[in-house]
Amino acid sequence: QVQLQESGPGLVKPSETLSLTCTVSGDSISNYYWSWIRQPPGKGLEWIGYLHYSGSTDYNPSFKSRVTISVDTSKNQFSLKLTSVTAADTAVYYCAGRGGWSFHYWGQGTLVTVSS
Amino acid sequence: DIQMTQSPSSLSASVGDRVTITCRASQTMSGYLNWYQQTPGKPPKLLIYAASSLQSGVPSRFSGSGSGTDFALTINNLQPEDSATYYCQQSDNTPYTFGQGTKLEIK
Questions:
Q1: Measured between alpha carbons, how far is residue A105 from residues A24, A56, A96 in Å?
Q2: pLDDT band at residue A31, thresholds of 50, 70 and 90?
Q3: Quick one: average pLDDT of A28-55?
Q4: What is the secondary structure of A22-46 as a DSSP string?
């Protein structure tokens, strides 16, 4: 059974960079496409981007200039960096694994608050 | 971007009822339409993929249908544990997009 666990700071200052890591266990990171998805408090879901273990990526144009998703296959981890954050980036951030064309696997989510 | 519009935004139903949630896409899709269930404080859970395929382990009272631009999630014989928010999501094109959610309350 694939399990995902997000980790990273829960508080980021405005204008700084949000950095999160997702650790994949139970299967190889090479078997799926990996995404970051966020959910502002009380709101809906927003896809940020995906990465394949080969390094290929695709990002939501809403974030394109600020986002980088990268992989560390040796650690079975992938990461999110979002630069120049504002209060609007406060959200629960989920890592998710896409099997086929749907998100089969989800982390528990981590709340990141942007505040000084 | 493909915009996904769900209706209703919320509904209330009783145990044993049948409910249908609809999802309309802003353009014709190939069929990569998925449904998720989310309860408070938890990540979404995949229920239906490719419009009508039931994810392993999901009760058979959940079903999906539709094609083109119009899709539906139907829950038969509603149970108390079905109280949740339901989201549709398209994987036809990036950026992948979600509907705004439908909150289902069990009376």
A1: 10, 20, 5
A2: confident
A3: 94
A4: EEEESS-GGGSEEEEEEE-TTS--E
Nearest to B46 among A62, A94, A104 (CB): A104
Report residue A4 as tokens: 């995902």
Interchain CB distance below 8 Å, A45 and B50: no
CB B55 within 8 A of CB B67: no
CA–CA distance, A113 with A40 (Å, rounded to integer): 10
Closest-CA distance, A103 to chain B, in angstroms, reads 7
Q: Which H or E run contains A83? A: none
Q: List B residues 4-43 in contact with A (Cβ-Cβ < 8 A).
A: 32, 34, 36, 42-43
In the prediction, which pLDDT does B38 show?
Answer: 98
Question: In this model, does residue A74 exceed pLDDT 80?
Answer: yes
Residues of chain B scoring pLDDT < 50 = none
Closest-CA distance of chain B to residue A105, Å: 8
